[in-house]
Specification:
Layout lengths: L3 H12 L2 H8 L3 H15 L4 E4 L2 E4 L1 H27 L5 E7 L1 H6 L1 H11 L3 E7 L2 H9 L5 E5 L12 E16 L10 E2 L7 E4 L5 H12 L5 E5 L3 H9 L5 E4 L10 E7 L5 E9 L6 H17 L6
Parallel strand pairs: 3-4, 3-5, 7-11, 8-9
Antiparallel strand pairs: 1-2, 5-12, 6-10, 6-11, 6-12
Helix pairs in contact: 1-2, 1-3, 2-3, 6-10
Length: about 300
């Protein structure tokens, strides 16, 4: 019901240019430019202007975006109210989330919704947090589980509703014969001088580990790179370094490694949020999915550890 050209303007704003927005939306740059010109003609205002080698949005475009966010939130609220009057949900419902959420939290919720509503098509998408927000904004997902990183939209972003779901503690993985393996109270700072195994620079995992290490007072020595928990554990098993693994992630018990819970104030953890488009949090299927996810996470993390 919202003019698709307004969504194009949002994406140009979000990604800072026509080409980047076109890539995310799977359009050609010329198609994005054409829609922006059409929108500008319809509104009778100038929306973009040259800025160096790129473009920037005009004050008029900022005004349009502000009102677009309000209209979208109202439309989502209307959809939620209408859905509450329906006898049974129909259509499609998409959940998205980062790897461990897509492994441990989303499948039980998706299966329960599928079994509960025969006329509802439930879909799961594994995606990095940045991509989850893209899918929500594009209307290609209805609920996302995301880890807070430096790239996350602020909680004040009026395009999304972001609610804390749980804090997932981070454990230190060291070789089984490592001196820290046998200690009862280990802090992250105790591993400050260790060689670290990190994810690809710019990835969620890399940002997470570097961020918590810096909060503990040190910058980790980037010795090796691994994006999969299994690969990182194999490196640890050979004495090549240490890694941080979220409590949700499982470790391979066949490797000679030790999982060491960390102490501290606060103890290192990743903050997991449930995100929807602003105004959609009260949609009955979204609410039920969140209840199911909370039930699963309560089983994994008793109330005293959440």
């Amino acid at each position: 019901m919202i003019d698709p050209k307004l969504k194009v303007l949002q994406m140009v704003d979000r990604y800072g240019g026509v080409t980047a927005a076109a890539e995310v939306m799977r359009y050609t740059p010329s198609a994005v430019s054409y829609q922006l010109r059409q929108l500008a003609e319809q509104l009778g205002v100038k929306l973009i202007e040259p800025s160096g080698r790129g473009i920037q949005l005009t004050p008029a475009a900022r005004t349009v975006l502000r009102h677009t966010a309000v209209m979208q939130a109202q439309w989502e609220q209307a959809r939620s109210e209408l859905a509450a009057t329906a006898e049974e949900p129909t259509g499609s419902f998409t959940l998205c989330g980062f790897s461990t959420a897509a492994t441990h939290l989303l499948p039980p919720a998706a299966a329960a919704l599928r079994d509960r509503y025969a006329r509802l098509t439930v879909r799961l998408v594994e995606a990095e947090p940045v991509r989850c927000f893209e899918l929500l904004l594009a209307g290609e997902a209805d609920l996302g589980l995301v880890v807070v990183t430096s790239d996350s939209p602020p909680l004040s972003d009026d395009r999304f509703d972001q609610q804390p779901l749980l804090d997932d503690p981070l454990d230190l993985i060291v070789p089984a014969d490592h001196p820290l393996a046998g200690q009862k109270r280990v802090t992250l700072a105790d591993a400050a001088r260790e060689p670290w195994i990190l994810g690809t620079p710019g990835s969620t995992y890399h940002q997470l580990v570097v961020g918590v290490c810096m909060s503990a007072g040190f910058t980790p020595h980037f010795a090796h790179q691994a994006d999969e928990w299994e690969t990182g554990q194999a490196m640890v098993a050979q004495g090549l370094g240490v890694i941080l693994v979220p409590r949700l992630a499982r470790i391979n018990t066949g490797w000679p490694v030790a999982r060491v819970p960390l102490w501290g104030e606060p103890a290192p953890a990743r903050r997991i949020l449930a995100a929807t488009r602003n105004g959609a949090a009260r949609h009955p299927v979204v609410a039920q999915a969140l209840d199911l996810i909370n039930t699963t996470s309560s089983g994994l993390f008793p109330p005293g550890r959440r």
